[in-house]
Amino acid sequence: MSVLENFQEWKNFLSSRVNQAQNMGMDQQTISNLAYELGDYLAKGVDPKNEQERLLKDLWDVADEQEQKTIAGLMVKLVSDGNR
Questions:
Q1: What pLDDT digit, counting tens, does each position of 22-79 carry?
Q2: Residues 6+ apart with CB under 8 A from 57
Q3: Contacts of 28 (CB under 8 A, 6+ apart)
Q4: How many domains does the chain have?
Q5: What is the CATH number of the domain that holds 37?
Q6: What is the largest distance, in Å, between two alpha-carbon atoms of the chain?
Q7: Is residue 1 part of a domain?
């Protein structure tokens, strides 16, 4: 099963990648920029597998670039250790 099929698994996967990036010394801005690039890739090329992903894609599609960066930053914040 893909991590994209279950939203909790996706959050766990993203959390693990965020922690890995932090342990490598990446700052929050760099991590948020990478999250934006990943979000853009997913929105353009991957069909949502559940209701939560559909909502995120719909929000992404109506957002301008700055709003998309905010969504990406919020996803990073959502899965950061202090917020789970």
A1: 999 999 999 999 999 999 998 999 888 889 989 999 999 999 999 999 999 999 999 9
A2: 42, 43, 48
A3: 76
A4: 1
A5: 1.10.760.20
A6: 34
A7: no
Are 59 and 11 in contact, with CB atoms under 8 Å apart? no
Using 50, 70 and 90 to split pLDDT, how confident is the model at 84?
low
Residue 69, token pair as written in the block:
């960066």
Range of the domain at 21: 7-83
What is the rounded CA–CA span in Å between residue 21 and residue 7? Answer: 21
Q: Is residue 66 part of a domain?
A: yes
Question: Quick one: pLDDT at residue 80?
Answer: 87
Q: In whole angstroms, what is the distance from residue 35 CA to residue 25 CA? A: 16
pTM over 0.90: no
Q: Is-contact 78 11, C-beta < 8 A?
A: yes
Is there a domain that residue 2 lies in? Answer: no
- Distance of alpha carbon 52 from alpha carbon 26, whole angstroms: 28
- The two structure tokens encoding residue 51: 């209701």
